[in-house]
Amino acid sequence: TVGTQTDYRDGETQTDPYSPEYVVPSGSIPELLTLATLTWGRGLPAGLAEVEMIERAREKRAWEATLPPINDSSQIAKRRKMMEDMERKEWAFREQEIEKLQELRLKVLRKLLRRREENQKELDAKRLDDHWQNLQEAKEKKIKKIQHDFALMLRKLMSKRKNMMGKLERRDIIREYADFGSQTYAPLSRIGYFPDNHSERYVVKNFYLDTFAGLCKLEASLPDSVTQVKIEIPEPKCAITETGYVKRSARLEVMLAQVHQ
């Protein structure tokens, strides 16, 4: 009473057809045995070519039935002639089969050649695209270099145009110190000044600071007021009590004085 439904069709789960064993009675040649060479996937299910082969086999068996017997000497010439005619037909049929196979091979060869040409065209197109991309990159680099050189030469021409007549100009110290990008604050190495060279000349070298003997001599030259500090207690500006506290009246007087100021 319970039914099941599978996820597969019968055709998808069907195995190869079963071919049972058979026994041929003696003295009989069944026509079905002519198809014993055909198996599933190799001729079965039968197509047009298999049907033509079966029809030819039937025609050949019918032709064999019409042949004169071998033991009749009077029919030997007729039998030979019939066999030669059948042989010519077989050769003609074989030639047709060979032509069909050649046509199929030519079709396959044309298809392969067409596919190879398409692949070669794709490869050539890719190579051309890569070459074009490389040329574009080289072109952009060259354009950037030209623009950089143009800006450089333009700045040089502008600097030359400022003093085109070659007149001597007096140095404007105020303008140089007002501009933090001037030669005073940021000297340029291209005009012969290298700020990083000879930096040790800015190091302070003093006998009194670098040696112990100089420090002792410097300390001896200083007055006593520098080495011996004397602290004097300041006198209070307001009256205080004996215990050291400031009176309230004195504190109010100081506040009034601050407000008055």
From TrEMBL:
A Pfam family matched in the record: CFAP91
Organism per entry? Rhinopomastus cyanomelas (Common scimitarbill)
Is ATP-binding tagged as a keyword? Answer: no
User: What family does the Swiss-Prot or TrEMBL record give for this protein?
Assistant: Belongs to the CFAP91 family.
Cellular component (GO) terms are: axoneme
The UniProt keywords, alphabetically, are: Cell projection, Cytoplasm, Cytoskeleton
This chain is encoded by the gene named Maats1
Compartments, as annotated in UniProt:
Cytoplasm, Cytoskeleton, Cilium axoneme
This chain belongs to the protein called: Cilia- and flagella-associated protein 91
Query: Which residues does the UniProt record annotate as the domain CFAP91?
Result: 4-156
Keyword Oxidoreductase listed:
no
Show the stretches that span the lipid bilayer: none
